[in-house]
Every structure is written in structure tokens, then in C-alpha cells.
Amino acid sequence: MTKVYPKAVIPALVTSDKPRFFTESSSAGRNLNPVVLTVWKKSLLFNCDGFTVFDTRGNLVFRVDNYAAGNKAEIVLMDASGRSLLTIRRKRLSLTDSWLVYDGEATVNPRFSVTKHVNFLNAKSLAYVSTTGSPKTKKNKNAAYEIEGSYSRRCCVVYDDKRRRIAEVKPKEAVRGVGFGGDVFRLVVQPEIDSTFAMALVVMLDQMFGGSSRRLSSS
């Protein structure tokens, strides 16, 4: 079997108390290289659905293990040590498929929201992201980011308001002719945003487009 990750040791991820979603406009003192992560649509815990995310050295970076427990419309994105980074909740009583994202385990003052795009005339657009924490208004005028592509094919791009590519989901390259399938893929994150934010978008795309058999039920 082709190895998804090279290391068995799980180190603690050193992070700040609060995730930094967006970098400053100045380039001084920050890494200008994109972050490349390997996303495995599988929990490391037995009998639990979720995600396991590794960096290029094989170190565990993010994990999602709580699909099978607790509130079925709530997902917690954790770091390698199991600390809650973001809580993702489906917006209740909404006419559209909308999700709100909170710091840590908070339940008030969402940091941003993601709303599924429904327009058969523009099938390439998947979702809109608002950094205000409020769902999109008419004609999506408040959208800070737009996600386009095909999640089922693991080929998506996140664009900012200037149509710059700030994050991409790509199929993982085959190793010695052996492919990984759709459950293992790449997440490429540009310096303009934080990888925590980008991984939260992946989790929500999976809920919107990952298939009814594997999605959480709303509550």
C-alpha cells in the first residue's frame, strides 16, 4: 500500500492562541512560499470519520475526529495536539447551505461564513466566503473570496476579490505509478492567507459537495 504519510510520530504543533487567517499587506518578515499540505479524508481514530492533514515532512498539522459524536451539524478543526482551532457550524433555518466559523470552541461572533453557490448557469462557482461572519447578501456583493472548480475531482481554486489564486485543492501525484484516489489530495496555500483558514474551507466543501452518504445531517 502506498504510504500517505512518512512519519508515525505525532509532534505538537506550535501555534498562537488565536488562528491568524489573513497575513498583513507588508511582505517583511514573512514566508513568501506557499504551504503544501497532504489531506487524507480519514480520521486516525478507530471508527471515526474525519480528516488528517500532514505537512511536507510528514508531520501531523490538522485533524478532524468528531464526525461521529456530538452535534451532527458541528465540526471542530484541531491542531496536532488536539487543541480546538475552529468550530464550524451549519447555519440553521437558512434557505441556502451556509456554514459559520468560530474561534476555538466559541459559539458567538463568527469569524467568517461560507455559503454554497446555487446557479445552474454558472456551474463552476462552488461557494462564496464572507469574512464578516454574515451569510452573503443579494448578488454576493460582500464576498471576500470565491471558490470555483470541482470538489468531487479534487480540483478547486479559492480566489480573492482581485481574482488572485490564494489556495488550491489538487489531486495528489501518484507514487511509482500507484494512485491515492480521491481520499488523499493536496492543499496548496499561498502566503496571503493562513492554512487554518484554508483547511476550514476544505471541510465545508466536503460538507457541501462530498456526497450525501458521507455528509453530516443538519440538526
UniProtKB/TrEMBL annotation:
Transmembrane segments: none annotated. Pfam families: LOR. It comes from the Eukaryota. InterPro entries: LOR (IPR007612), LOR_sf (IPR038595), Tubby-like_C (IPR025659). SUPFAM superfamilies: Tubby C-terminal domain-like (SSF54518). Belongs to the LOR family. This is LURP-one-related 8.
